[in-house]
Amino acid sequence: MAPTTRRRALGAFAAALATGVAAPQLAHAGGKPRGPRPLTRAHAHNDYDHPRPLFDALDHRFNSVEADIYLVDGDLLVAHDPVDLDPARTLESLYLAPLAARVRAHHGSVYRGWRRPLQLLVDIKTEGAAAYRELDRQLSRHRGLFTTYAHGKVRPGPVTAVVSGDRAAGPVIAAQPTRSAFYDGRLTDLGTADPASFIPLISDNWTNNFTWLGSGPMPAAERDRLHGIVSAAHAHGQRVRFWATPDFPGPERDAVWRELIAADVDHLNTDDLAGLEAFLTAHDR
């Protein structure tokens, strides 16, 4: 393993230990891992809209996927809009059961030979408290699959579930002494007393916080703000994601992605799986 590569791997390992998240496995003897290296910054937004939900993202080495859920007749259905609801498209069938089967096949990890958890971001589209209670019930059926929190301690698992969407879920999650999910915060949560063991992720709308959309140089004040947000989050052991960043292929999107990587933003949001895979392979060394 080259010295620079090893330093990066060790740095990621130390950072993961500090935040209570499982670290990526270092390369095996000979410098090669057993399976494809996951793209830790790659987040598949609206993952279920692809022809093969979850699997298309995994084929492109994404290490974070997002599913929108509705609580309907006691089950959790996956769709972006109510008109698209289908009783056959459940969270269990599209995500939970396939992830459990893959982890079993790969002897305890989503990507064979790599121990960093896959992030499953679950965006609740109906009333948050009720939907979360059903989500909690479904997650708890898959023992050993998910990162868990119990009485102040985080135990890493192959998949880390983070709950987003309707904010009524937050107090329910916070009140649990043991749980299989965590909470997706907003920039207003940055710097609060909430620990990373409750809010490991800070997400927000790019266009609500920045005017720059990739045309011309990024304004210095906005670049400073971006770097400040990331530094503050990382100081608290939290990761950062923005949605509503430019996602149409072209120089503007590439310019925004370059600035996000330069600021060390943890997750780049896209519906273009192949496009982000190619970009990160070329630019995120």
Topology, element by element:
Blueprint: H1 3-19, E1 39-44, H2 55-59, E2 62-72, E3 75-78, H3 91-105, E4 118-124, H4 128-140, E5 148-150, E6 153-155, E7 159-165, H5 169-174, E8 178-179, E9 182-185, E10 201-205, H6 206-209, H7 220-235, E11 239-243, H8 251-262, E12 268-270, H9 273-283
Parallel strand pairs: 1-2, 1-12, 2-4, 4-7, 7-9, 9-10, 10-11
Antiparallel strand pairs: 2-3, 5-6, 5-8
Organism: Streptomyces tabacisoli
Keywords: Signal
Signal peptide: 1-29
Characterize the structure shown.
The protein is of the alpha/beta class. The chain has one domain (3-31, 39-280): Phosphatidylinositol (PI) phosphodiesterase (TIM Barrel). The protein has helices at residues 3-19, 55-59, 91-105, 128-140, 169-174, 206-209, 220-235, 251-262, 273-283; strands at 39-44, 62-72, 75-78, 118-124, 148-150, 153-155, 159-165, 178-179, 182-185, 201-205, 239-243, 268-270. The strands form two sheets. Strands 1, 2, 3, 4, 7, 9, 10, 11 and 12 form a nine-stranded mixed sheet that branches. The longest helix has 17 residues, at 3-19. It is globular. Residues 1-31 have low confidence and may be disordered. Residues 1-29 form the signal peptide. It holds the Pfam family GDPD_2. One of its GO terms (biological process) is lipid metabolic process. InterPro entries: AIM6_PI-PLC-like_dom, HAT_RTT109-like, PLC-like_Pdiesterase_TIM-brl, TAT_signal.
CATH superfamily: Phosphatidylinositol (PI) phosphodiesterase
Name the average pLDDT: 90
Please mark out the parts with pLDDT under 50 across 5 or more consecutive residues, or reply none.
Answer: 1-31
How many domain modules? 1
The amount of beta strand, in percent, is 15-25%
What CATH calls the topology is: TIM Barrel
Order of helices and strands, N to C? HEHEEHEHEEEHEEEHHEHEH
Radius of gyration: 18 Å
Distance between the termini: 14 Å
Largest sheet: 9 strands, mixed
Number of strands: 12
**CATH architecture heading:** Alpha-Beta Barrel
Task: Output the structural class.
Answer: alpha/beta
The CATH class name reads Alpha Beta
Count of helical segments? 9
What would the principal axes of the Cα set say about the shape? globular
Organism: Streptomyces tabacisoli
Pfam family, one: GDPD_2
GO molecular function: phosphoric diester hydrolase activity
Keywords: Signal
